[in-house]
Amino acid sequence: MMKPTFYSTLLGLFFTSILFAQEMGPDLVLTPRDSIVKSAWVFGIGLNAVDDSGDDFDELLSFNNQWNIVPFPSRLNFGRIFANGFTVEAIATYNKYKEGKEIDQVFLTEDINYYGLDSRVTYSLNKLWGGSKWFDPYLGGGVGYTDANNVGRGTWNGVFGFRFWFSDRFGVDINSMGKWAMNRDKATNHLQHGVSGLYRFGINKGLTRKGEEKLAMIREFEAEQKRVNDSIAAVKQAEEEARLLAEELAKKEAERLAAQEAARKEAERKAAIEKEIRDYGNIYFAFNSSYLNNDSKVILDKVAGFMERNPSVKLRITSHTDARGAESYNQWLSDRRVTRTVDYLIDKGVSEGRLESQGLGESHLANECDDHTSCPEEKHKENRRSEFLVIEL
Questions:
Q1: What tens digit of pLDDT does each residue of 70-94 get?
Q2: In the chain, alpha helices (H)
Q3: Phi, psi (rounded to 5 degrees) for 199
Q4: Are 290 and 341 in contact (CB under 8 A)?
Q5: For the region Disordered, what residue ranges are annotated (predicted)?
Q6: pLDDT at position 161 over 70
Q7: CATH number, domain at 340?
């Protein structure tokens, strides 16, 4: 009954595993597309453009009249990208207000240098919706110091921008930053735009949101696969335990039957040995005599031959008298009879250590002929005997 249950259970687990694997689909593999840079150091170099026209957001794209830019790298930034979505950076910029540009609603009559040193903290909007690993919009703010139009001022900064990552290490940052002067009496607000090539190093990578979902599915699949494998192993173990139990029971039954058969044969052997001794019969003595007659010697010769054929057998020999005569005399006479019986067997080669002997006098009569009962000679003769009992086989 075990085998059909075992194989049907295995078949059910197999189809469960197949169906689960089909449900997962062939895309259940983590690829480089599922990973993203979680934290890194970042360095950038690029250009900056300053709009300090003083007309707020009027003519934001008036490149010729209001934007100031130099034709060489003028922006350096260095910072740390954190796994929680925040980036902390320090930015140094240089620019030049050109003669003829509108600055604070006044057209310059000479070139004026621009210096900026800013810090900013930005937050990646991808953290909100788990967006693309290559397109990274952000918002942020910070503080800085700017020397512009020959006026130094501390600034409150607000920034919005985009980072485009071409690989784990290289990308571009495009941003616009509003700078609000901390002291409006000395300086005005202005806009600063920047574009930088970026390089990331000291990278620590993790999974995208989609990658984390895929990993969860993979772990679910692996857990299910482990459950199936464990179930199969449990079924196999149960089958093996049942097989071993059956073998153990069969072995014990075989041992029991073998022991039973051995006991039967041993009992038969013992019975045969005891019967052989009984069949030899007792030896008998004449009245008031301990001497062995010819009939007794014939029987003792058979007993000696029996002992030679069965070297493990030990005998107990007891000798007796009839009830006539004094009890003490009868005890003495039975002792002489048993001694002569044992000595004869020893003379025939039987080891003394295999013989136990005892004279019992008139204490174990074979019939009713005691001191109070009158019996014929034939009856009294039955009591004048030596008996043989197997005590060890």
A1: 999 999 999 999 999 999 999 999 9
A2: 2-24, 63-66, 126-129, 209-280, 294-309, 327-347, 377-381
A3: -135, 125
A4: no
A5: 362-381
A6: yes
A7: 3.30.1330.60
Q: Are residues 198 and 286 in the same domain?
A: no
Q: Is residue 18 part of a domain?
A: no
Q: Which of 125, 107, 19 is nearest to 64 (CA)?
A: 107
Strand order in the sheet with 355-359: 283-284, 385-392, 314-319, 355-359
Q: Does any domain span residue 344?
A: yes
Looking at residue 344, the DSSP 8-state letter turns out to be H
Task: Decide if 83 is inside a domain.
Answer: yes
CB of 385 closer than 8 Å to CB of 364: no
What's the pLDDT tens digit per position in 331-349?
999 999 999 999 999 999 9
Domain boundary among 154, 174, 207: 207
Tell me: do 200 and 300 sit in the same domain: no
Residue at a domain's end among 192, 207, 222: 207
- Per-residue pLDDT at 24: 52
Nearest to 147 by CA among 121, 186, 109: 186
Spatial CA neighbour of 319 closest among 305, 339, 301, 302: 339
The structure's pTM equals 0.54
Q: What tokens does 228 get? A: 């199936």
Q: What is the DSSP string of 264-297?
A: HHHHHHHHHHHHHHHHH--EE--TT-----HHHH
Counted domains in the chain: 2
Name the residue type at position 206. G
Alpha-carbon span 181 to 188, nearest angstrom: 6
Which structural domain, as residue segments, surrounds residue 320? 281-392
The answer to whether residues 71 and 175 belong to one domain is yes
